[in-house]
Amino acid sequence: MHKTITFAFASLFLTISIVMADHHENEEKDWPVVLDFTMQTLDGKEVHLGEKYDGKVLLLVNVASRCGYTPQYRGLQTLHEKYGEDGLAVVGVPCNQFGGQEPGLAAEIAEFCESRYGVEFDMLAKVNVKRSEDDQCPLYEYLTDEEQLPKIGSDIKWNFEKFLIGRDGQVIAHYRSKVAPQSDEMTAAIEQALAEKTDD
User: Cβ(111)–Cβ(104) under 8 Å?
Assistant: First the structure.
């Protein structure tokens, strides 16, 4: 009996040690700047981008439900289905700064995306992505900073602009709204990014 209890405590201690070591490693990791942000998901949970998307190719898109570009949801879902298993993570970021075209609450946005376009990719909580008198989301403050991201960083002009980020956490490109998710330009860039491997 004594040996059984001792073994159980030893196993528990080992499990706790592994979990704590893994947590410590996540805290100490030197994340690329674009992944070192904590955001909220559409259902209100906190998520650290690095811990969630480390090693993935990330496509960040500021989305809206009442825009002329809203049908791009369909193309984004297709990208998710086609490349998700290869390492692409499509992430929608709702924003209401452009023509008030995303006025809904989180539950309304989620229901719209699922019922109209069958969206299965990740969605974050609604934020401000454009420089304005209101608070700009820190992630987009970085993405739109022309000094930190020369030739890529520039202000968001409308809904459905896209940032492509490589497996190594480097920002590859910024696409304007008119560039469709399934365009040759985007799919070629995504496939090239997916082909790149990172050093562990």
Answer: no
- Ordered by start, the domain boundaries in the chain are 1-30, 31-195
Cite the active site residues: 67
pLDDT of res. 23: 43
Contacts of 126 (CB under 8 A, 6+ apart): 94, 95, 96, 102, 106, 109
Q: How many residues does the chain have?
A: 200
Residue 147, Cα to own-chain centre: how many angstroms?
22
Answer whether 175's CB lies under 8 Å from 159's CB.
Answer: no
> CA distances (Å), 49 to each of 34, 69, 98, 187, in order?
8, 26, 25, 23
pLDDT per position as a tens digit, 73-116? 999 999 999 999 999 999 999 999 999 999 999 999 999 999 99
Q: Which of 176, 175, 168, 174 is nearest to 193 (CA)?
A: 168
Domain 31-195 has CATH 3.40.30.10: yes
The string of pLDDT tens digits covering residues 145-172 is 887 887 787 889 999 999 999 999 999 9
CA proximity to 164, closest of 48, 40, 53, 70:
53
What's the pLDDT tens digit per position in 179-191? 999 999 999 999 9
Residue 77 makes CB contacts below 8 A (sequence gap 6+) with 90, 117, 118, 119, 120, 121
Instruction: Using the structure block, give the residue that is written with the tokens 């992630």.
Output: 139
Residue-averaged pLDDT of the chain:
88
